[in-house]
Every structure is written in C-alpha cells, then in structure tokens.
C-alpha cells in the first residue's frame, strides 16, 4: 500500500474559511452534517465563516478551540469535492481532512503507487493547485492506529509546530542547551511567555500520544532503570 499527503490550495469552502487566518480546521464528514474541530487564535472568525457556509447546529467551546456540528454537509454543496476524484482513482481518504492557510490537506491511501499518480494528474489537469507533501510505501500495520504509530501522533497548531521546530533546530533539547526560550521568542516574534506556552502545549500533546502508544504495547509499570 502507498500513502500520500496532498495540499490542495483554494479548494472548497472550508479552505476559504481559513484563508488569511492562523486557525486550522479538522473535518469528519457524516454525509448529513460535518464534525469540525477548529483551533487557533482566529477560531471565532473561522466559525463565523462556517456558519455562513453550512450553518452551525451545535458548538462546544474551549480555550482557542471550538467543536462544531454543522447543519449541512459541505460535500453536498460542492461538485468537485476530493471524494469524487478518490473514487475514480481507487484511492481512500484517511480522515480527518485538515484545512489551514486557505488550503486543504488530505492523506490518501492506495493499493499501488500508480493510483496516487493518476489522482494527482487528474487534479492538476482540472486546474487544481496541488503540492505533494509526502509519499511513502506502507508495509506495517500496528495496533491502535490505521497504518503506523506515526499516524497516532497529534496534530499541532501552526504556532505550536513552529515553536517546536525552532526549539529542535536551535538545540533547545540538547545537553547542554544551545538556546533559551527568550531567544526562541525573539525568532518567533512573540513574548517569552507566549513562546513557552506554545512549546509546553506541543510537548504535552506529543508526550501524551507517545506514552499512550507505549502503554498500548504493554510496557510494564515498574522495573529498574536501563539508561
């Protein structure tokens, strides 16, 4: 099997809803409505755009996060939804769809590499702007995840990802550390407190996901140290 991640620019109402914002949307389609997870500092702006597009039936608010159940399914209002291309090219969508920065990011699974190539070519031939973010052969199926342990890792917000990326690149996690959170904040263009918050949230998500995977593999609760 083969798995690819495509970024499709300007495709669909939810892509437009995230344009010029720092929010992201994760979508699970239920045919008659959509389940949306909206995150980021501009979440409310995106929610307002979604409400104009398909209506909002229910919402649950948390800090910088909103969970929405829409009145209607966006796919029923679009004639060129990605799902129609997937069916024609024998590909499967790995939910959720993710929207950010005016683009849609979708993970696609196919039994052979040629199907992914055909899917890409058809999208481009129809005038769609597509970037291939990744493509790989999948040969391991693990417990607790559709394809691999990596797929169980959490999605980080754009700010959380940037903070973590800079921390790794600048040696924040090396021993001894080669940078400080104050220096990271300067590079990110935010206050030190904000940079530290982005970093802690990213770390919390990653640690929780990795620990859940380790626990699922049956690691014991005790034992001596081996390092």
Q: Can you characterise this structure?
A:
26% of the residues are buried. The protein is globular and about 55 Å long. It has helices spanning 13-18, 43-54, 82-88, 113-125, 158-169, 181-188, 192-216, and strands at 2-9, 24-29, 34-39, 56-62, 65-70, 91-100, 103-110, 130-137. Strand 4 and strand 5 (65-70) form a beta hairpin. The protein is an alpha+beta fold and 227 residues long. It is built from seven helices and eight strands, in the order E-H-E-E-H-E-E-H-E-E-H-E-H-H-H. An eight-stranded antiparallel sheet has the order 4-5-3-2-6-7-1-8.
Gist of the model:
One of its GO terms (biological process) is regulation of DNA-templated transcription. It is globular, with a radius of gyration of 20 Å.
Mean pLDDT: 82
Per DSSP, what share of the residues sits in E-state strands of 2 or more residues? Answer: 25-35%
Following the backbone from N to C, one meets helices and strands in this order, namely EHEEHEEHEEHEHHH
Strand arrangement in the largest pleated sheet: 4-5-3-2-6-7-1-8
The description of the largest β-sheet is: 8 strands, antiparallel
Taking all Cα atoms into account, the compactness measure Rg is: 20 Å
The number of E-state strands comes to 8
- The DSSP helix count reads 7
End-to-end C-alpha gap: 37 Å
Structural class: alpha+beta
Number of domains: 2
Q: Characterize the overall form.
A: globular
- Helical fraction equals 25-40%
Low-confidence parts, pLDDT < 50 over ≥5 residues?
A: 140-151, 223-227
